[in-house]
């Protein structure tokens, strides 16, 4: 485990370190290796050397810098290292072992009174969340971290809304040729529209792909609506957007709605569906989770009250749509609400579980508090007969009627 010059650097760790600290780390590495059998010592040596290559230092220098940083900065550096391993395709077991080696090494330094803290290594969920923060789509604010099962949660949410509405939308749309779903998520709404309108082409637009299931008339287009929809003017007979209060900054809503109308044909329809943050008959745990969520939203420039919920119909009227209609639709939460209520409990449980990862990463709650809040909220979802009300507004773009629109 000797100190050697490393090749390319992975992080900006600065250029200077006390030679005495490097020497102490060199001794620490020797003692750490000597405390284990040869085979284990070689594996640990390889793990430390891999970390050193990542930070662009020799092993002793890399360890000295890690120990000198203190617990918070060291944890951040190790998280960055874990993200690098994940992006290079390292197996989960390999990542766990390499992080475990660093944790054991820091523990040895603590036992020898070189430091007075322990290294907290990131969980797989925290590594995933950190990857998302540095991904291209991370530039768009969105309170829910990406998760492998997020597609399932969005589908559950979709089915609950579809059952409540008795359909996929409320606008009086008939025989559209082209349909756009903005912020399409899993894409299930668009797949349902393909079945409902066999002659229509349905386009889903989002920053990330949804489910792999596709139909020949269903297309996905990558796009950031905050940078303008990647479509020409007047292309779609029906433009649909819902549940983006968690991803569109409050100040940008008028511009976003104007762009939805821009890509809609004269005579076509635009529909918005958004909920408030509060839930009727919420209990203390849900109230605490809601408060944390609104604080997170406010920090990202998103709506943190109910402005969007109160304004969806006004947004449509302000951009010149005709015959704007607003409906408020309560969605049941809990077993008392039958299938819809059960689906919404699944949706909330998954949503808050993921939100707690973000809240923990921002030091707004601890992992223990998050888990405890979700346990308490589960009881409230089951017994408080809650209602989550959606505001759905739709209007018609002035001009010639689209084919098949009899209104």
What does this entry look like structurally?
The chain is α/β, with parallel strands linked by helices. It has two domains: 19-122; 139-396, Vaccinia Virus protein VP39 (Rossmann fold). Helices cover 48% and strands 14% of the residues. The protein contains twelve helices and seven strands. The chain has helices at 19-34, 38-55, 59-87, 92-111, 124-133, 150-165, 188-196, 253-262, 284-299, 307-318, 338-361, 367-383, and strands at 178-182, 201-206, 218-222, 236-242, 264-274, 322-333, 386-396. The protein has a seven-stranded mixed beta sheet with strand order 3-2-1-4-5-7-6, sandwiched between helices. Helix 7 (188-196) links the parallel strand 1 and strand 2 (201-206). Helix 3 (59-87) crosses helix 5 (124-133). 40% of the residues are buried.
CATH class of the largest domain: Alpha Beta
How many strand elements? 7
Spans of at least 5 consecutive residues with low confidence: 1-15, 401-407
CATH homologous superfamily caption of the largest domain: Vaccinia Virus protein VP39
The dominant shape is elongated
Give a brief description:
With 407 residues, the protein is α/β, with parallel strands linked by helices.
Q: Which key features would you list for this structure?
A:
single chain, 407 residues, alpha/beta, Rossmann fold, seven-stranded mixed β-sheet
